[in-house]
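Intended use. Records like the one below are meant for learning the mapping from a protein sequence to its folded structure. Do not use them to infer anything beyond what is encoded.
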Amino acid sequence: MHLDVLDLRQFYYRTRLGRIAQKAVRDQVEALWPEAKGQTVVGFGFAVPLLRPYLADARRVIGLMPAEQGVMPWPAGLDNVSVLCREGHWPIETGFADRIVCLHGLETSEHPASVLEECSRVLGPGGRALFIVPNRSGMWARRDVTPFGFGRPYSLGQLEAQLKRHDFVPERHAAALFAPPSNRRAWLKSAEMVEKLGRKLSSYYAGGVILVEASKQVYQPTRPGLAERVRRPLRVLDGVPQPAGLSGHSASTTVQNR
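Structure written out for the chain above:
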């Protein structure tokens, strides 16, 4: 089930551990997508903490929040871009988005297939989607003191398999949240150092979350009957065909009788 938007806001904006988690995940998002100039960036779930770097240069930024979670105005001090929606009915035109970020939208959904179908629908040609989920083998999925301890955690293989079933092609993956989900002062102080070390080791098994970037598979359109016409081309240079029902002998006799 989806978490309440007030609990998510409390964690990411009012606690030190939440602000550390926000920065760690956002740094990895920016490493994958350094900029989105002139593009439309859509976030689903509670992805707005990761969208702030794109507010200045993106053509449009939209933060979709499912009705089961609730919505809050965002960003503070600027025009609101948050929109309340249904999981399977996003108020966005087909092919409108260039980038999609999904955080706390897939693992907590009761209908993940509907979420992925909407992601595929609104993502335009050449667009990319970034799915961020709790790592099944990580520490963050094993404790419910953070939002990553709720819902269904994934392994990398499970997430990629689910994306492929909905016509997504996994392109790259990364991990974040290598420090333990602890509020102890010593761990909070060392969190940034541990995060940098974890990224250098490039081991997604130790990360608290998995990030998978995927593109949408586009099938080549076909024209009905085209293959049949190619297999049976016009015989323009084959001469005049013989009338049906007449053998060579009978046709010759007919000509002589004339």
